[in-house]
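User: Show me a protein chain along with its predicted structure.
Assistant: Here is one chain, sequence first, then structure tokens.
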Amino acid sequence: MKRVADIPPKNLKGLRVLVRSEFNVPMGDTLVRNDFRIRKAIKTIAYLRDHGAQVIICAHVGRDPKDSLAPISRSMKPLLPHVFIKDIVGREAHMAADAMKGGDVILLENVRQHPGETANDPAFAQELAKFGDLYVNDAFSVSHREHASIVGVPRYIPGYAGLLFADEFDNLSDALNPTSPSLVIVGGAKFETKEPLIKKLLDIYDAVFIGGAIANDLLRARGFPVGRSVISKGVPGADVMSHPHLIIPSDVTVENEQHQARVKKAADVTSGDKIVDIGPDSFAEVARVIRTAKFVLWNGPTGLYEDGYDEWTEAVAQAIAGSSAHTVVGGGDTIATIDALGIEEKFTFLSTAGGALLEFLTNGTLPGIKML
């Protein structure tokens, strides 16, 4: 994989570089709630700028194509001087690019406002490619998408991995070959989408702890009642359920129909209960494994984080932060927990990726990686 860091810095001076960054951050009204991805992305942009390149950034935000990058630009201004252009491949964007000097940075409008982006339209990819002498992909977290700015542009101009992209690739590659004793913690929902990865991790890691809604599927497969809990359509196979490395919750936090929460043994869940998190015994078990682990991979909260059940997710974060293990963490809610606790610096690597992380760990590559 070609990396921008491999280009002699003196050769960057005067070059026009199209950078695909990742600025899809949590928003509240028109304010950025968490700038983690922005702070991570700036490293590559600043590197190119400091070496005299002209940097044109394309990125996306939100799920609605009408969403604008204007709030992102306002949040980024104190961190990196740049000009926001409310255009993508039109006249205004090209005029701004033509007026650039070495060290200038412009940010184009939300690339998904153009239908050619998600359609991976070759004509749109060619239009984007006209902005750069070379292309830098620094958006690992969307590189599982076959979109024009990810897989289309590097067909027309030389493509390189950005500094963040390379960090993601290297650290997640390490996670596929962990030092023993190793532990992986997997949360979230939809067991059927995570089953291939869980099967793979069970053979790679010494211990695999399952939390979140997917733990409900494993509890049900073990014959435990799950009441009103969120469950998947898929049923875990015997190869998963009988694996010696698998750890599932022994106790759970449940919410009854009156929205009251309490801790119960897994066998004591009733038909009116909804499992919303793990319990203290389950945490104590995973904490014991964390204390002796040399490598910990974590993706996904232990409970329904979005509903306010964050107690044990936070406890897991603190336990990992206090360990001496090499730690790799990904997933929006997981990163948000760490950010809220102010303990980012206590982890070896925090990934910007969610779905891309899971796909990379499952397949060992992504469409955006293949194009580099």
